[in-house]
Design goal:
Elements (H helix, E strand, L loop, with lengths): L7 E2 L7 E3 L5 E4 L7 E3 L9 H10 L4 E3 L12 E2 L3 H5 L8 E9 L1 H5 L6 E2 L3 E4 L1 H14 L4 E5 L4 E8 L2 E11 L1
Antiparallel strand pairs: 1-12, 2-3, 2-5, 3-4, 6-10, 7-8, 7-9, 7-12, 10-11, 11-12
């Protein structure tokens, strides 16, 4: 049986990172916008296609999106109604991976901006994303949900007690 290909990140954004099996960490936008470089490394830079190839060829390479700053408004176009969420068209993306950040009092005290990252939840279908966002909007009336189509991201933010939860859905393609 042939293993299924891992879905790839549809679009990258500056401040995204890729950790390789060899221990190198590539940062997008470190030296120049839309290019990847290693902090403290040589002058080598990579473009998005080279990083996609790296993620596809190295099964232990891990992508981590830039976490939105908890003290700033979420980027993108606001999806404020249930109708906005029902009509959400994610094409040409075929899925998404959910990255969650949690900022509690301890993290805020120690100066964390995005908060603590949880393990990603991969292989979500577009219908799963819409259902999750509709559920978040229904359960948390003050939730903020935004779409950043240029970077292929959806963000949802809500608070439970003194803990701020931020979900970032990174759109993927086969």
């Amino acid at each position: 049986m042939t293993p299924l290909a891992r879905p790839t990140v549809w679009r990258f954004a500056d401040r995204d990172t890729v950790h390789t099996a060899e221990g190198a960490t590539w940062y997008r936008g470190l030296r120049r916008s839309r290019s990847w470089a290693v902090l403290g490394g040589g002058p080598e830079e990579r473009d998005d296609e080279a990083v996609r190839a790296l993620l596809g060829s190295d099964p232990r390479a891990a992508f981590a999106p830039a976490g939105p700053d908890a003290y700033a408004a979420l980027p993108g176009r606001k999806l404020g109604t249930q109708r906005d969420l029902e009509q959400l068209d994610l094409r040409p993306a075929t899925g998404a991976t959910l990255y969650r950040h949690t900022l509690d009092r301890t993290g805020a005290f120690f100066g964390s901006n995005p908060g603590r990252r949880s393990a990603p939840l991969p292989d979500l279908r577009p219908a799963d994303v819409r259902t999750s966002l509709r559920g978040t909007a229904a359960r948390h009336s003050r939730a903020r949900i935004t779409l950043v189509r240029v970077h292929g991201r959806l963000h949802a933010r809500y608070a439970i007690g003194s803990t701020l939860h931020t979900h970032t859905y990174v759109l993927t393609a086969p």
